[in-house]
TrEMBL record:
PANTHER family: F-BOX DOMAIN-CONTAINING PROTEIN, F-BOX PROTEIN INTERACTION DOMAIN PROTEIN-RELATED
SUPFAM superfamilies referenced in this protein's UniProt entry, alphabetically: 3-carboxy-cis,cis-mucoante lactonizing enzyme
Domain of life: Eukaryota
One Pfam family here: b-prop_At3g26010-like
Organism (species): Zea mays
Domain F-box protein At3g26010-like beta-propeller, first and last residues per copy: 21-198
Official protein name in the record: F-box protein At3g26010-like beta-propeller domain-containing protein
Length: 335
C-alpha cells in the first residue's frame, strides 16, 4: 500500500538536540521505526541512545544510551552492536529494545555478563539480561569467548506476539530462530536446518507464517550454446517454518538471475508470495513472484532505483493507532 500523503517522510517532527551528529535507521516493528543517535564528532556508535517514532501519528520517544560504547582505539563498526525493536499493537503502552554487544570477533560478548541488555518504555530503564543468553553457548566457551553471533541486518519478524530473529552458534555450527516475548524473554527456539554450503541471509513473515531465507554458496556450472561453461546464479532457499515442531513444512528453491553477493533480500509481502531484494550492482529494488507459473524472467519486476548510496531498506507498514509509550511534540513541550 502507498504511504499516506500526510506522512512526514523527513521526520521533521523529531526534535533532536544540536549536538546529535548522525541518526541511523536501524529497524521497524508494526509501524514504529528505530533510529540510533551518535554525537557530533564522536566515534562511539549510538553514543546518544535511540529514537523510536511513529511517522503516521508523528509520535516519538527518546531512549537513553545503555552505556555501551566502542572501546577507545577500535574502529566504529555497526557489527559491534545489534539492536531490535519490539512493539505489539495489542499492548500500545509499551515497546522494548533488545540490544546485543559483540566483541572484536563479532561474537556475542557474554564474558562478564555484559552482552545483552533490554530497555522497557514502561520503566524507562535498561536491564542486563546476559545470563539468560548463555544457554545458546551450549558446548562451552570458544577460547575465552562465547561463540554466538546475532546480527540485526539479517532482519526480524513479529508474529503471534513474539519477535523472531536468527542466533548463529559457531561452536555448534547451527542456526536457531529465537522468539522473544513482551518481557524480553526467550519463549521459543527453532533449529533451522541449513542446506550444505548455505548461510542465513534474511528472516521475515508472510501470510501469518515465518519465512527464512538462506543462500547456497556452492555454484554449479552449465554449458551454454557456445559450448563454453559459466557459473549460474546462486540458489535461494526459502523455508516456511511450522507452528508446533522443529522441521520446516515446506521448502521452495528459487534461482535469481543475480550472482551471490550482488543482492540483498529486504522483505516479504505480508499478504502474498512476493519477495523483495536489492540488486547491489545498480541499486534496483526488485520484486520476485514466488507463486507465479510464468517463466522466470516474467516473475521479476524492477520497481525503482535506490541509487548507489542507500544505507538500508527497512520494511514499513503504517500504524495509525496512538501509543501512550510515545508522545507528540505538543505533549512533550506543552505547546
Amino acid at each position: 500500500m502507498p504511504v499516506p500523503e500526510d506522512t512526514d517522510t523527513e521526520f521533521s517532527f523529531i526534535e533532536l538536540p544540536d549536538h546529535v551528529g548522525t541518526i541511523d535507521l536501524l529497524s521497524s516493528c508494526n509501524g514504529l521505526l528505530l533510529f540510533g543517535c551518535t554525537e557530533e564528532g564522536s566515534e562511539s556508535y549510538h553514543s546518544l541512545g535511540y529514537v523510536v517514532c511513529n511517522p503516521a501519528t508523528k509520535q516519538w520517544a527518546a531512549v537513553p544510551s545503555s552505556g555501551w560504547v566502542v572501546k577507545q582505539g577500535e574502529e566504529r563498526e555497526e557489527e559491534f552492536e545489534s539492536t531490535f525493536l519490539f512493539f505489539d499493537p495489542s499492548v500500545p503502552s509499551r515497546f522494548l529494545l533488545i540490544q546485543f554487544w559483540h566483541d572484536e570477533d563479532a561474537a556475542l560478548d557474554l564474558v562478564g555478563d555484559k552482552g545483552v541488555h533490554v530497555y522497557s518504555s514502561e520503566t524507562g530503564e535498561w536491564s542486563n539480561r546476559s545470563s539468560e543468553w548463555k544457554q545458546f553457548a551450549r558446548g562451552g566457551e570458544w577460547g575465552d569467548r562465547y561463540g554466538v553471533m546475532i546480527t540485526s541486518w539479517l532482519g526480524s519478524s513479529f508474529l503471534n506476539g513474539m519477535l523472531h530473529f536468527f542466533v548463529q552458534r559457531m561452536c555448534e555450527g547451527d542456526v536457531l530462530v529465537v522468539a522473544i516475548d513482551g518481557e524480553g524473554s526467550v519463549r521459543r527456539t527453532i533449529r533451522w536446518p541449513l542446506h550444505m554450503f548455505s548461510q542465513p541471509v534474511f528472516i521475515g513473515q508472510s501470510q501469518g507464517r515465518l519465512r527464512c531465507v538462506s543462500e547456497r554458496r556452492g555454484l554449479r556450472r552449465r554449458q551454454d550454446e557456445a559450448q563454453s561453461y559459466r557459473v549460474t546464479p546462486s540458489y535461494i532457499d526459502i523455508d516456511v517454518l511450522p507452528e508446533d515442531h522443529d522441521e520446516p513444512e515446506e521448502s521452495q528453491i528459487t534461482m535469481f538471475a543475480i550472482s551471490a553477493g550482488d543482492y540483498e533480500v529486504v522483505a516479504f509481502h505480508p499478504h502474498g508470495d512476493l519477495v523483495y531484494f536489492v540488486d547491489r550492482r545498480n541499486g534496483d529494488l526488485i520484486q520476485y513472484d514466488m507463486g507465479s507459473s510464468y517463466p522466470e524472467d516474467e516473475q521479476v519486476l524492477r520497481l525503482c532505483n535506490l541509487g548507489h548510496n542507500f544505507r538500508a531498506v527497512i520494511p514499513y507498514v503504517p500504524c495509525f493507532s496512538m501509543s501512550s509509550a510515545l508522545h507528540t511534540n505538543e505533549e512533550l513541550f506543552d505547546v
